[in-house]
Amino acid sequence: MYRLYFKKCFPLFILGALISGSCKKELDVPPTTELESNYFENENRVQKGIGSIYASLSNVYGANLGSQVSQNGQTLHPLWLLQGDDLTTSGTTNAEYEAFSGFAPSDGRVGQVWQKFYYLIARANFMLQKLALPEVNEVITTPGLKDINRCEALFLMAYAHYKLWDYFRKAPLQLSRVQSIGEAVLAPSNGFQMLDSAIVDLKEAATLLPTGWDIQNKGRVFKNSAYGLLVKCYVLRACYASEYEGGDKSGDYANAITAFGQISGESTIEGVPFGDNFDYRTENNPESLFEYQASHNQISDNPWLDNDMGGPVGSFGAMYHYFDSHWGNYGCGGGSIGPSPKLRAMFDPQDPRINETFKLAQNVDNVGGKLWWLGTTWDFFDGYIFVKYINGPRGDKYDVDFQIMSSNNPRILRLADVKLAVAEAYLNTGDDVNATKQVNDVRKRSRFSTPDGTESPVPADYGTVTMQNIMDERLFELAGEENIRWSDLRRWHIAGYINLANWTPADFGYPFDPSLFAFDVNRDLLFPIPSSEMNSNPLMMAAGNNPGYN
Questions:
Q1: Are 168 and 190 in contact (CB under 8 A)?
Q2: pLDDT 10s digits, 278-312
Q3: If phi over 0 gives left and psi between -120 and 50 gives alpha, with beta otherwise, what is residue 10?
């Protein structure tokens, strides 16, 4: 698995240490650590540099349990899991995210998400700079690998730009390596500028990435990864076409369809049961387009450290205890996250996806008591527990000392998501036949995702689909995954398919006192720009925060 590159990657060159020479010969002491000037001595070192970009995601998906005061060390997931209508909390913990109350630029998680994606961008720019050097090119002897490495960096930077645009809308567009304070102070991007940069990079990446990788490199991005993310970017851009200069709704939908047509047969949902997308035993399967390659040390991991440099100090694992009663979920403030009443009510009980998404807590397989925090009744969410990634043996991949860090890969982009996204494009360009086909493909896969593989009568194929059908199908298929639902609801609101301003707390799946719910459609469609950025970047300060945030 490609995670081996992450575990062994110690990119000291990322620090960009600058050592000045001395005029006194007796002071010419050889450096005791490797410098970027001599690090890239062979092809393997270059691959470790590329691995360091992938590794940046470890601090997004890890536990980060180290700080309980500033929130800077808390798990980041509540920030993007609790806004929307698919998941809810076990009480007032993290209420600022679910109830949209008291959420502010000073929130530690906001600053951390911003910072983590800029870490990734910095590493991508560093490697792009290095790959342009003749002396680095000379050590890459595998034919085509230099171009592939460049496109891996472009893809990962495009992903970060896509997320920053979706979360914050305006953010500095850093397209080169920062080597001075002045280069780090940039004005915020405007309109589609950041999203368009992601699209340009993905289009280049798609041309030169390989169609796939051998087993030792599974998990590295490939052509279909770039085309799949392009579909998502174009559909997102289409929904905001009326908001910014240069918007072209019909053109963006057409481009999404074109990108989808380039996805080759190496990627498919046929023969991939729904539950395989959340099982460590079936990672990087034919449906997967992009996963975070989670792992943990065989001896010990430390979930209290924010670390992606390998070794026995930190962890590359993923954090899933925000869904259960394990003591490690104190990173969520002691609360748990589970299926909302709305999600539970909307599912047809015969849909095979239901038992792969949530079930009664006492019915969750705890692998003979090994996963001791599962398989018992609890008082939250009317007794239900959200089970994607933790459903029985498929979740039995935790570190040996604390059972906090899981090496079950978070699936960031999968083909079913892309098929349902392009269904919107087909429908909005008048191609009802292909729109219906994409949705029915996903529903057919669901029908055959029963425990024994026999066909369920539910969900049946549609004769033709409406936009409401597509929106509902995305909830059933993608509930609780990677901020997908809240991103969907916001873009559908802007596009006019729904009106969040008229939604009640119940529409948002909020199960508590409605008077505590404080959603403001003029404020809460975007995250606030973090105080750390506003205070350190005078150009951002001059531009002001997102609407409604002081």
A1: no
A2: 999 999 999 999 999 998 877 677 787 765 555 45
A3: beta
